[in-house]
Amino acid sequence: MRTKVVFRRLLRNKQARYGSIALVLLVGLAYIGPYFGPYDWTEKDFLAFLSGPGPDHWWGTTSIGADMYAVTLRGMQKSIIIGLLVALISTGLAAIVGAFAGYFGGWIDKVLMWGVDLLLVLPSFLIIAIVSPRLREGASWLWFVALLAAFSWMVTSRVVRSMTLSLREREYVLAAVYMGIPRWKIIFRHIVPNLSSLLIIDATLNVSGAIIGEAALSFFGFGVQPPDVSLGTLIAEGSRNATGYPWLFAFPAGLLVALVLSVNLIGDGLRDALDPGSNS
Amino acid sequence: MSILEVKDLTVTFPGGIEAVRGVSYEVERGEVLGIVGESGSGKSVTSLAVMGLLPRNATVSGSVRLHGQELLSMKEDELVKVRGRAISMIFQDPLSAFTPVFTIGDQIAEAVRIHQKVSKDQAARRAVELLDLVGIPNPALRAKAFPHEFSGGMRQRAMIAMAVANDPDLLICDEPTTALDVTIQAQVLEVLKTAQRETGAGIVMITHDLGVIAGMADRVLVMYAGRPVEQGLVDDIYYRPRMPYTMGLLASIPRVDGEEGPLVPIDGNPPSPAALPPGCPFAPRCPMKVDMCDDEEPPLTSFGGGRHVACIRAHEIEHKGMTGADVFPVPVIPPSDVVRVPRAERATVLELDGMQKHYPLMKGAVFKRRVGTVFAVDGISFDVAEGETLALVGESGCGKTTTLQQIMRLEAPQAGRVVVLGKDSAGLDKSARKSLRADLQIVFQDPMAALDPRMPVGDIIAEPLRAHGRTDARAKVTELLRLVGLAPEHAERYPQQFSGGQRQRIGIARALALEPKLLVLDEPVSALDVSIQAGVINLLEELKNRLGLSYLFVAHDLAVVRHLADRVAVMYLGRIAEIGTVENVYDSPAHPYTQALLSAIPLPDPEMERTRKRILLEGDLPSPADPPSGCRFRTRCPKFARLSEAERQRCVNEEPSVARLANVADHGAACHYAEEIEVITASDNQEEQ
């Protein structure tokens, strides 16, 4: 019944509606858009280096003559997947680890929080530097998503744990225990839904964080490697010449903003749909 | 000459919320005016407006005159001189009313020095005098204590000491005893009476407890939806109410001297101040409603003899001499089949035998060491037969809740035995425990906290069904909602869309989903308003009879217990002081603690309150970490004080166990010198019936 009620509330929610439409359009643009462009992302136009947007190159060209339109959309395909996956994995991990540690307490809490603290104090940079040479070949972007997620969930899980500590004393949790419901089910049914506002905000923040963070990691020769591109690498490169050649920066940055905004709208809508206190 | 004169006071909050809509009253010197009303009726806002303590965004109009001097138009710096000197206020929660970082003595001395030109030493001496006046033992020593070192009752006394520090002309008490236990409440009310005698002040007493008002007030003002609906002398209001709301309120409260039979509930809920009905605000709930009631709100009209009533049918009620039971439909509750069988032949659903729960008292951050033991529950035994309600009563800290938790856990207790439906909790494996849980369910005290706010009601009720693998959850939810008096369409709403009483009904529906045999009720009505409470009590009684349930009922309200329970166990400091059938324990209590407890309960009957003699207990509950030797009650026992030295030795050295009293079958008390006496005299009208 909860799924049905939440879904209906979600459909009625304006923000969620506009957000989903925007996200569908953006995904459509990323995957279908390249077929309509005059150039492929690997093609180079040696007659037009750093030329501005025009009828031939819609969004201009880069310093090596690649078509910005094709390159940006190619980058966006990667970034949408990386952003959404990292956000889901990292927030999910934070929720599960935090809620289990907080709810069970005792040695489970000690072990999990020890792990969290360890990951917090270990410089992620160092770990990635050590691990990356071994993972470079094959489907490295999946590893990449896993690594990004692995280093971005700890702070949230600490917050989730402390909120769980107060939630587990509530009478409805006790009532569930006295009904004979297994504890892991109580966590997923009563604890996590009551943390959903926090988790949704965290997930939407993680989407943009992952897309930008991926660029930083790519710099260390990990993840998306040239000539392949992502929104993050495009923004990183474009920002250096943002004043001289604004199209190098504006299109990828604008798409990132649009992507994050649409995810935020969906998140807000979902939060309202899950929270019986909101009337919107 | 009246001290305080309030005329047409209205308070409006932003968003057009009219919290108070035209309140007028006067308080004379030495008079106690009681203001009664349910939560949201505007009684507290009225008094805050008089004190000028409302937030800035509230719009106040009308007139409040103290000794003829208008307070509403007064500037803040002038008002400061009046507050605490001419008017002072006693708040509900004495812990938040004191600053935690200063000693009690300093805070009282500060109140003295703000309004009087005295030296620091004099003020400190005055503080000690005041603490002595309100009956704090060792006042000179206790004045140096911090608020957290005081118990709740002592804090409220200190609050009273502070309030009377400057001989105020008017004392406003906002629910002064609501947060306290009954025996402590009786002490504090006694102190309030002393304080009033000493200062000769007028008192405005705000409370929802009709018993407290009956004992304290000279005149009563009944508020509903931000307006006074009836006003008059206390006897008139209690014995000859003329407004259906007052009548319903008086008929709906369970009485500790009460008769059997269902209570008279008032249907519906108080209106929200943002959406008042047209016409009389009580009309939607009123059984005497006629079409004219919806036309306009009846004004508070004089009725002669200082009475004011806001009802267009008041004269008719007067003429016909109607009472609440005539006006409101009395529900019919079908009798139970189970109770026809004698108790001894019925099956036992729950048995506790010497159950213990001790908590270790730990100290130290890194290396924890045990520094003591809290004897939360220290060997209690009782049993509940099929179709029976056993009530566990006692003040806070006596171990009732711990007992419930131990039973609900279905694990082996530290010592003793817990046997549920013939199965010893120590010998249960995982699957047996789970299947036993279907027969043992609980209803919690706070209907807000007991329901997951993020779950639709249908899911909440279906949760136990699904957990135990029932497939027909959907149909069953509809049936359960109907059973507790809610509509099946409500299944898709969230808990917060319901009122307190409805939420409690949802909690009951969830507990009944698996058709349990034993239901544990943890203060199921104490968080509800009086008019809602009666409906829930009736529902519990009806369900018990219809479904053949047994209840283990925990409460501190002895009037509710008398109404609902068949047997009662009185707990004190983790042990049972007295146990027996409700009739035996209430009519002839044998343990001095039970006697004091029963005599401390205020009755909603002014005549009886005036003539009644109270057994007042000294001091507070001792800490369960350090219970007295021998009989635990001896430190506060009025009987112990009267015993000879030789007799006392037995109380000090030997812990009494529950012994059956000679003349009746089902009545036992844990006292060496148990002696049955009558504490509550049956009211006259009851005897007539």
Structure description:
Chain A is an all-alpha fold. Chain A has helices at 2-12, 14-36, 68-104, 106-121, 124-135, 140-150, 154-167, 171-178, 183-194, 196-219, 231-240, 246-274. Chain A has a domain at 73-252: Orthogonal Bundle (MetI-like fold), CATH 1.10.3720. Chain A is built from twelve helices and no strands. In chain A, α3 crosses α9 (183-194), α3 (68-104) crosses α11 (231-240) and α10 crosses α11 (231-240). The mean pLDDT of chain A is 85. Chain B is an alpha/beta fold and 689 residues long. Chain B folds into three domains: 1-86 and 168-332, P-loop containing nucleotide triphosphate hydrolases (Rossmann fold), CATH 3.40.50; 94-167, no CATH class; 338-439 and 516-579, Rossmann fold. Chain B is built from 26 helices and 24 strands. In chain B, a hairpin with a 2-residue loop joins β4 and β5 (69-70). Chain B is globular, with a radius of gyration of 26 Å. The two termini of chain B are 43 Å apart. Chains A and B meet through α1, α8 and α9 of A and α15, β18 and α16 of B.
In short:
Chain A is an all-alpha fold. Chain A contains 12 helices and no strands. In chain B, α4 packs across α5, α7 (152-163) packs parallel to α8 and α16 (457-467) runs parallel beside α18.
Task: Specify the oligomeric state.
Answer: heterodimer
Arithmetic mean of pLDDT of chain B: 86
H/I helix tally of chain B: 26
Per the CATH scheme, the topology name of the largest domain in chain B is Rossmann fold
Instruction: Write the CATH homologous superfamily of the domain at 73-252 in chain A.
Output: MetI-like
User: Which percent range describes the beta-strand content of chain B?
Assistant: 15-25%
Shape of chain A: globular
Main beta-sheet annotation of chain A: none
Helix amount of chain B, in percent? 25-40%
